[in-house]
Amino acid sequence: MDIPHGGRSYLATSNSLGPDNFYAVNLLGGSIEYDVDLSQSGCSCNAALYLILMPARDTNGIPEKGAGDYYCDANMVGGHWCPEFDIMEANTYAWHTTPHKCDPPTDKGHYNNCDRGGSCFQVASQKLKGKYGPGANFPINTLKQFHVRMSFEENAHFKVELTQNGQTVSMQSDSSCDYYVSQI
Fold first, then answer.
1. Which is it for strands 140-141 and 132-133: parallel, antiparallel or unpaired?
2. How many domains would you assign to the chain?
3. What are the C-alpha distances in Å from 165 to residues 85, 94, 140, 147, 181?
4. 5 in any annotated domain
5. Range of 41's domain?
6. pTM score, two decimals?
7. What pLDDT, on the 0 to 100 scale, is given for residue 108?
8. In a domain, 141, yes or no
9. For the domain that residue 134 is a member of, what is the CATH number?
10. Angle at Cα 182 formed by Cα 179 and Cα 183, nearest 5°?
11. What pLDDT was estimated at residue 142?
């Protein structure tokens, strides 16, 4: 699937984008896998795959549209906060995976604040130095398609595995991330 610059795709239970139709999957104890081609995503480009807790809710807990839909995230894009887990923020030079933590929701499910930048996880340029980048000298050559497996373990840890031509490189969380994973 090709998604244009600035475009979004949602998982839904129907063709309607109503507030009750967003598909919320519980990945704890499971995984998500996909193939990705980042060859056209150079510097200053962010190809992203992430989970968010939609729909956005107003202070009374009523689903509320932001910029055209019920979008929310940990940076208040569209006007609303909600937990976010960035599985992939990447281009040919860097890979970043991070969960974002929010303050506990009100009794009506409204979030008042989240940690915009996230923390507690991995940047490929640090963890995968010499293993991820553009060119045949990298085990994960980002100029070619590769496979991604993101596992959400029962103990709230998570692991990212990148595989290409039989070679796998991985990054994983530690106990400092437990709270983050439990929110999504």
1. parallel
2. 1
3. 28, 20, 8, 10, 30
4. no
5. 30-183
6. 0.86
7. 96
8. yes
9. 2.70.100.10
10. 95
11. 96
Q: Provide the β-strand partners of residue 169.
A: 162
Does residue 25 lie within any of the structural domains?
no
In sequence order, the 6+-apart residues with CB closer than 8 A to the CB of 113 are: 81, 102, 103
Residues of the chain with pLDDT under 50: 179-184
Q: Are 150 and 31 in contact (CB under 8 A)?
A: yes
Handedness of CA 114, 81, 87, 91 (dihedral sign): negative
Quote the pLDDT of residue 120. 62
Q: Classify residue 163: in a domain, yes or no.
A: yes
Question: Would you state the structure tokens that stand for residue 85, as one six-digit string?
Answer: 């887990």
Tokens of 55: 């729909």
User: What is the DSSP track for the chain?
Assistant: ----TT-----BSSSS--TT-B-----TTEEEEEEE--TT--TT--EEEEEE-PSPB-TTS-B--SSSS---BTT-GGG-B--EEEEEEE-SS-EEEEEE-BPPPPTTS----B-TT--SSEEHHHHTTTTEESSTTSSEETTS-EEEEEEE-TTS-EEEEEEETTEEEEEE--GGGHHHHHH-
In this structure, what token pair is assigned to residue 176? 């400092």
